[in-house]
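Example 9 (inverse folding). The structure is encoded as follows.
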């Protein structure tokens, strides 16, 4: 039933895109009032949320969807078009299922959800707070074909109780996921190493079957495809669980979290570092830390980490370039022996407290981008 509904959702989404595409193709314009000059100017005709709602109204019965779902799809399309400032992609038949809804479209009772005169049972990961007020939600499908219920709600009882008021700096690394200024190190999940051998075996089986199918010209789903999808989902779930636990530990015991602005995009372009960066989930870890710090009423900041590894945290002496293979080094001026990552984390925290960037004779990334 949910798969059938998701195809109807794709139809509404594609209708929104096709309608917008035709409006731009006809070179239609819209007149708006310019606040600066006070004159009316013409802009390309992009539909507003209310206009798109009027175009899709009345189609819910034929599509076997709730009317609130149809409105949620059109509003989501307009929101994402404004966000990305371009026409969005088509939703094809291989797109993972997604069915949005509003609070008035569902009713949750005794681990059962009632939606559009249909009843669905689900396994509850945790109960909602007593004062929870559901705002929006959706049914989502993963690569293995499992469906999930997601809801957003308002509550005053939810939050992370902070156990301590430590202030730490964090250096995101390659050898370890993160190194704290107090010497604590968070190891990488290293899931790639364990799953790579099995993934290569599945790919070999598929490539052999693909060559065989091309010879006899009989194409169908490749063998081991289901196992491959399940393996990817399993690895992603393990990674997400690990990052959730580690980020929650940090948010509970810290009132100030200062993280170096490691450029994940540049790391992902590097052949040697891309596998480690994507396997560790660095960007995911940083986003988790950010919103969990807000829940715990803590402060989360990202600052430039330039020269943090080769600047002495004791005397601020800057050394020449240090290769990535050198994990420990000693300062020639004061003689202090440093762990590369711990020293970088201490410098990141000290830099935020002092209010100036590390190696302040150079521009930071943020200043370069703004200029």
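The amino acid assigned to each position is listed next.
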């Amino acid at each position: 039933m949910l798969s059938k509904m998701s195809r109807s959702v794709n139809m509404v989404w594609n209708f929104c895109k096709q309608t917008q595409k035709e409006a731009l193709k006809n070179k239609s314009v819209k007149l708006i009032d310019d606040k600066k000059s006070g004159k009316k100017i013409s802009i390309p005709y992009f539909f507003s949320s209310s206009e798109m709602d009027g175009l899709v109204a009345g189609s819910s019965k034929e599509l076997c969807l709730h009317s609130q779902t149809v409105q949620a799809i059109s509003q989501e399309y307009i929101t994402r078009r404004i966000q990305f400032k371009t026409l969005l992609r088509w939703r094809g038949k291989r797109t993972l299922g997604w069915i949005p809804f509003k609070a008035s479209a569902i009713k949750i009772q005794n681990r059962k959800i009632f939606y559009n005169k249909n009843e669905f049972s689900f396994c509850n990961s945790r109960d909602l707070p007593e004062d929870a007020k559901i705002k929006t939600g959706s049914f989502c499908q993963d690569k293995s074909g499992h469906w999930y219920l997601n809801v957003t709600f308002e509550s005053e009882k939810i939050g992370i109780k902070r156990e301590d008021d430590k202030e730490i700096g964090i250096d995101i690394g390659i050898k370890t996921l993160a190194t704290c200024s107090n010497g604590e190190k968070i190891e990488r999940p290293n899931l790639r190493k364990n799953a790579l051998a099995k993934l290569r075996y599945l790919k070999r089986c598929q490539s052999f079957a693909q060559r065989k199918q091309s010879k006899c010209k009989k194409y169908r789903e490749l063998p081991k495809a289901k196992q491959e999808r399940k393996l990817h989902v399993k690895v992603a779930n393990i990674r997400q669980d690990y990052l959730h636990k580690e980020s929650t530990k940090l948010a509970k015991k810290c009132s100030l979290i200062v993280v170096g602005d490691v450029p994940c995009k540049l790391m992902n372009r590097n052949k040697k570092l891309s596998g480690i960066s994507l396997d560790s989930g660095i960007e995911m870890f940083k986003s988790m830390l950010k919103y969990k710090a807000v829940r715990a009423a803590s402060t989360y900041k990202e600052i430039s980490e330039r020269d943090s590894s080769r600047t002495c945290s004791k005397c601020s002496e800057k050394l020449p370039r240090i290769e990535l293979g050198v994990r420990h080094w000693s300062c020639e001026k004061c003689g202090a022996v440093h762990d590369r990552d711990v020293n970088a984390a201490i410098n990141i925290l000290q830099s935020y407290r002092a209010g100036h960037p590390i190696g302040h004779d150079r521009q930071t990334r943020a200043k370069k981008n703004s200029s």
